[in-house]
Design goal:
CATH superfamily of the largest domain: Medium-chain alcohol dehydrogenases, catalytic domain
CATH topology of the largest domain: Quinone Oxidoreductase, Chain A, domain 1
Strand content: 25-35%
Distance between the termini: 14 Å
Structural class: alpha/beta
Oligomer: single chain
Helix content: 25-40%
Number of strands: 20
Radius of gyration: 20 Å
CATH architecture of the largest domain: Alpha-Beta Complex
Shape: globular
């Protein structure tokens, strides 16, 4: 049995290749992938050969936002059956290191995460027709009206839910809060949806492009600001030491970080969601306004929560899915995903 895989060989060099597929062993299942979302990290690997200190040092199968249908199950797997539709959690922590034992599995010292070049040898990803995974990674999708394309959005939604939990740890319940989201890409748009589900009172979103801002409005934003064409609109929110109780910085751009700090009120909270290299931060404002500046990284229990929210359509992720391309058209899909004037989330589809 063979499967197509999407393997990155170097910067700008992705190829569809074939690999043999083994039968699932004890505790494993064979999943026929149905949909896989192209993430910002996949784009960085493709365009730049990595991001920050993480570099691609050997060929790697990309993809960690995936969902599919169970094809066969291995020995001892009782909770899943052939035909079950599942979202596949890409995280595989060791559950034995100091951080795992503290409940911080997202900081596992030997984390194995689909399609990640953090470790060497690299961890191979889920952009393939068929993949053997551990049964515990599979979260069932039971609503027949929910597509596998929607289910594949569980991973980025889980990132946003964890970010909300990080904010809640310092800002209290987000219900009734006034919130700024800088950056209207997939994470920014899903953060808006998660905030709306959490009962935020007012959500303002900024970006440099009109297309993603339009999607953010569909996801629940009350107001959107194109800071490129209307730079003065955001300045009003910085008056009197700031407006917003909480800000989620989803772009990792230095100007956006500065504007978020300026627009956050004293003793407000800023959660840095976007990932970049070293950037300058106006620390005097952080100190002077007693702002809490928090980081956020991946997720733990939020993955199952994200699947549940999508499965119940409490969060409708369909507006962020801009296009779907077959795995054989991966190069065109990656080029489209890189065009923020045309796409928010581009997904790959796989053979049944």
């Amino acid at each position: 049995m063979k499967t197509r895989v999407l393997r990155l060989h170097g910067m700008g060099d992705i190829r569809v290749e074939e690999l043999d597929v083994v039968e699932p062993g004890p505790g494993e299942v064979l999943v026929a992938m149905g949909a896989g979302g192209i993430c910002g990290s996949d784009l960085h690997y493709y365009q730049d050969g990595g991001f920050g200190p993480i570099r691609v040092c050997e060929p790697i199968i990309l993809g960690h936002e995936v969902a599919g249908t169970v094809k066969t199950v291995g020995e001892g797997v009782d909770a899943l059956s052939p035909g079950d539709r599942v979202a596949v959690n890409p995280s595989r922590p060791c559950n034995h290191c100091r951080y795992c034992l503290e409940g911080l599995q997202q900081h596992c010292l030997t984390m194995r995460f689909f399609g990640s070049a953090l470790r060497f040898p690299h961890e191979q990803g889920g952009f393939r027709d068929l993949m053997v995974v551990d049964a515990y990674q599979c979260v069932p999708v039971t609503n027949e009206e929910v597509s596998l394309a929607e289910a594949a959005c569980a991973e980025p939604l889980a990132v946003c839910l964890h970010a909300l939990n990080r904010a809640g740890a310092t800002a209290g319940n987000l219900a009734g809060k006034s919130v700024l989201v800088t950056g209207a890409g997939p994470i920014g748009a899903l953060t808006v949806a998660a905030l709306r589900n959490a009962g935020a009172r007012r959500i303002v979103v900024t970006d440099l492009q009109d297309a993603p801002l339009a999607v953010a409005r569909r996801m629940g934003a009350d107001e959107t600001v194109n800071v490129l064409s209307e730079p003065d609109r955001l300045k009003a929110y910085a008056a009197d030491k700031g407006t917003f109780d909480v800000a989620f910085e989803c772009s990792a751009a230095a100007p956006a970080i500065s504007s978020a700090i300026a627009a956050t009120r004293p003793q407000g909270t800023i959660v840095a969601v976007g990932v970049a290299g070293e950037v300058s931060v106006p620390l005097n404002l952080v100190v002077g306004k007693e702002v809490t500046f928090a980081g956020t990284h991946r997720f733990v229990s939020e993955y199952a929560q994200a699947v549940g929210l999508i499965d119940a359509r409490r969060i409708d992720v369909r507006p962020i899915i801009s296009a779907t391309r077959d795995l054989n058209d991966a190069i065109a899909a990656f080029e489209l995903a890189a065009d923020r004037t045309e796409a928010v989330k581009v997904q790959l589809s796989f053979a049944a």
